[in-house]
Sequence to fold (288 residues):
Amino acid sequence: MEDLRRIIWIASFPKSGNTWVRTFLARALPPPGTEIDINSLARFTTADVRQDFFDKASGRTPFVAKDMDEWLKVRPRALALIARSKPGLHFVKTHSKVKAIRSVPLIPPQVTAAAIYLIRNPFDVAQSYSRHLGFDLDRTIDMMLNPEALLASNSQIFEVIGRWDDHIKSWVGAPGLQRHVMRYEDMSADPAAAFRDLVSFLKVPVSDEQFEAALAATEFGALKAQEKASGFRERPPHMTAFFAKGRAGSWREELSGAQIRRLRKGFLPAIERWYPELLDETAEAAKA
Fold:
């Protein structure tokens, strides 16, 4: 039996640093003889929502699901094709949580080798996600608190996201999964230490020269300059820039006291677990 446990998931709730990590890995571990930039990431990583894999898995071009049941029937075959698309371990982006729907696992162990899971505090996620979706902050917070939250392409290829805290719990608590957890805030505060830990988890040879070059190429200002010069294919059409701020803590200027209060109340146990340093500050800000 063919062993398809080749996928290393780069998993996150949206707007939590997925593009940053994918770009770093593409620069630190490029295919021989190539140099990857933000617009050629698909040559290094893929995603579990790629239309072409669903086309092949369904035998229809284009595949357009009439409902979630039809998408669920095709997803396992599409993931098997993604796993088979490269001979060894490779990286696949996902925003879906670890969950089975109608007995169909969204992240099947049969194709999974490991996962890199990224966490960002919900206050910063809210303001970044609202720009990405083109929604106001209150509507975005509604989505973050909604256990049934989904995203879907025009072809009804779904991303099952759910609540911010449940998303974390699903990945961090998934039994038998080899995982490396990274906080966006730690990546921002000390990127060299955060990415050294990632390289160590992956057990891949990266020279000091490669590492330093990848770090420099994926510093936020460098990514912003790339987008300004060449655009970014993953930028939603309504956004003027994908790489907008790229720093931890911008929620302090953007969220109202009421919005901070909603997020804090809705996610308090997860904030206590992952962001204890924000408890006092957000409690005070929530009074405003």
About this structure: The chain is about 45% helix and 10% strand. The mean pLDDT is 91. The radius of gyration is 19 Å.
